[in-house]
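Follow-up to my earlier ticket, as requested here are the two runs.
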Amino acid sequence: MRKGSIIPCLLTALFLASLTGCQGPEGPPGPAATADNGSLEGFAANIKCGTCHTAEQDTNYFVEGRAYQWAQSKHAKGGDSERNSASCSGCHTTEGFIQRMGGGAATNQSAPSPPGCFSCHSPHQRGDFSLRKSTPVLIKSQIATVPDATFDYGPGNLCVQCHMTRDLNPKPDPTKSAPTDSIVITTARWYPHYGVQGQMLMGEGGFKFPDYAYQGNSIHTTATIIKQEGCPTCHMAEQVYPPNLGTGKAGGHTMNIRFPGEGGGEATLLTGCKQSGCHAAITTADFPGSSTAPVGAQTAIAANMDTLHRLLESRGWLETDQNSPNYGLVKIPASGKLVIKPAIKSGALYNYFFIEHDLSLGVHNTLYALDLVRSSIAELRKP
């Protein structure tokens, strides 16, 4: 060996010794690995990371592109993941939702993440991007004497695991119409929560007054493509550039219908609306839903909702103080109890929140929404 080669060898030996020669006593064994936590589901047998996580555009871009879309979604930006208690985390956090879909109860989440990729998919454990669950969903009725209903709209069934009403107490009752019948409301949040879209689409969940002639539902309730695909039919329709300029801002995994327009203002995703057999000539979401809404579904609903709002305010049932934390919600008097007689009229208050929280201004089910708001107005106008 040449003399000059001895020094590098000695340095290498010293380096290796430093890695192994200063070990202390071995510590106690750590806890066994577990997959009980909702965010640790394990991995499918023989799964290969490179199937998705590669530098090639046809695999990596598939994942990253949809992750970028999701980052523009309300799930990412407005999912209220801070609502991480056991009673809310089952929908407002990925971790709680995974627990629910696994058949367990959602628990408190100390470091929650908003509803994201792993809420709807479990690619590492399943080895694919299939939906966690797509079976029909039984939705409990929040109207007394009205039976529960089953939502069955294909992949949309997963959406409605959360986009449905929550338990309400006391429940409004369409049979309580006598002058002496009363309902006592003690919370400003007496409404069917914000996820009512499932019931609105299927024409269930609203309060119906016995003496009003209801027309039924819009075509969205029974259209073949919507029955097969559910919510993704419109909310996840992929745009193509050109001519559409909303790629990455609406549709896909953004699930957005409204998005910032290129020239300023707001644009609307209509790709799903223009599918074969649907609204080929549609140019706006404010589309005439029927002969009873010739000016456009959203315009008609907005006008009627404004009337209903004023009627509810005049009865003192809505909080009008803008400095109140309950502004716009149910107004609870100083006594702590809002008493409504006859109790049947509380159905108008219920319908107001049901339609408002649907967020579509009647697009999901125009005929049904119009009937609910108009029947509520008629009821409040009775002596």
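Run two:
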Amino acid sequence: MNRLEFVVAEQEAGVRLDKYLSDRAEGLSRSALTKLIDEGKVTIGDKPVKKKDKTVPGDRITVLIDDPKPVAIIPEAIPLDVVYEDAHLLVVNKPKGMVVHPAPGNESGTLVNALMAHCGDHLSGINGALRPGIVHRIDKNTSGLLAVAKSDIAHAGLSEQIKAHSFTREYLAICYGNLREDARTIDAPIGRHKIDRKRMCVTQLNSKPAVTHITVLERYRGFTYLCCRLETGRTHQIRVHMAYIGHPLAGDEVYGPSKVITALHGQCLHAYRLGFIHPVTGEYLEFTAEPPESFVRFRDKLRNTSLL
């Protein structure tokens, strides 16, 4: 049984308990938290709570999570680009086209299948049996760095840093059009699209705060090369924010123009830099990974074309 504890601060008073926990417990979905509340596994002073209860400053909220049940995730000896590894965590460079965890239609060939083979039973269980070790995610067609927790203490510590916005995540991206500003911050809440539930959008309805900091690296003819730093980490955040300001990512089949650049095989987005304090040793760690060949080839083609 895993145990998480949160103490409500003064500025967090009066928030619905399910929303408070979904914002604080970065490694748990809102539906998973609702299930735990319904099962009486979320308590304040040993008293079970209801999801509609409001937070009170000073309350110590305890969340009990069952040990993950064995599931039919088959370990697969898929090569992993391991950038760093110790007894508590590892950092991997995920290739473009790889799904992070099993889901209907993608039961094998995922990062989790590869991690199960690489780590065996040494993966945290906080995020459930289908996503062992997964603290944060990147999309299938986004490449780059991911931190993976091998122990529950590492998982909780990394999740807390993500919540506190002290977990550095910088992405390289190429978008359509020419951004006039050299730097820009997009502060626009993101929620599920009310019609197409597979898409996200900027909305005030059932949304969460989302902030992306953008810096222009280079400008080309019809495109801009960017560094995007996440302050929050919502689903599809960079892709949604860039489309929202009228500069969708090149190759994005969901949020980009209908005439997509098929040769890119998905959005031109790469998780380039990852930085965090090791949750056990207290040491600050930072890693970078160069974008894949397809990204570099497209960028270099734009550079050369712009010089003509």
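The only thing I checked on run two: The CA atoms of residues 145 and 244 lie 25 Å apart. Let me know what else you need.
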